[in-house]
Request: fold
Amino acid sequence: MATSVLFALVALLAIGEFLLFGALAEAYRDIRQIRRHFGMVDQPTPVDLGPLRDAAPSDLGLHPDLDAAVREVVIYVESRCGTCRRIVNSLDGGIPGGMWLVVIAESPAEAFDWLGQSGITPDSPAARRVMVAPADEVERRLGMLVTPLAIEIEHGRLVRAKSLPSVQQFYSLVPTTMTLDPEQKGAPA
Reply:
């Protein structure tokens, strides 16, 4: 008798737990729908490059080294943008490999005053991958001013652009490059 009562209690608990997990899953689905409805989903928004697609990066006023890049990402940031500030603060004095910053500012001094708060100074190694452009020049070249904006470059051509809603999306764009050249340092012999 005690065994059958215990079995019935365990069965009831299992059914109750199953129902609670189902309710929790439904609640998460509802939250996801609410976030999507109000535009709170952490996904980049594609930006049409229009006639700039397949152009050389230097045609856009970007560093000429990018014209020979296999895979690089250029991020446009400005100090008035909250997400841009969070991205720059996360850099901690360095810029991930394969990424460049275009700081929208009136002068390099203004740009590095802002970047200096995150440890990127004009004489730091990261500064070599920083470009500075005034807002009107960026708008004239791109046809718009969206920040933070990521432009992906592949084989020396502009291929994609997207707006970045978060620091997480910024870091998801860090290019990974693998080499098949066994002579490179660190490669197995």
Remarks:
- The first helix runs from residue 2 to 37.
- The radius of gyration is 24 Å.
- The chain is about 35% helix and 15% strand.
- The helical segments are 2-37, 82-91, 108-115, 135-142, 167-172.
